[in-house]
Amino acid sequence: xxxxxxxWSxxxxxxxWSxxxxxxxWSxxxxxxxWSxxxxxxxWSxxxxxxxWSxxxxxxxWSFxxxxxxWSxxxxxxxWSxxxxxxxWSxxxxxxxWSxxxxxxxWSxxxxxxxWSxxxxxxxWSxxxxxxxWSxxxxxxxWSxxxxx
Length: 149
What we know:
The chain is mostly loops. It is rod-shaped and about 75 Å long.
């Protein structure tokens, strides 16, 4: 505990799996290595800005709050990002597939133009869709709730 030079030490800055380690893999708050917490340059780091699977990373894959890469949270330009507006499976994405609140893609929530979107007004199986089949509150399609036509 509080060891600065060995493995699995708490607050260790030089070894593997250390808490608050700044230079090694799987460290907490590490800024340069793999799987570090708050790491800004490595893989799977928390709050990492440039690497893969980082939390709050803005440029890499699977980052949290990443705005430019794949599977990032709050990413606006990549795949599977949260609040992404331009990519696939993003949350609140407006232009891609399976996005939440997406208005132009497939299976988006509150999507206005695509398939299986929630509150979509132009596609299939959307909630509150007014122009497609199986929509809720749809007035022009098949099996819609409150459909009049």
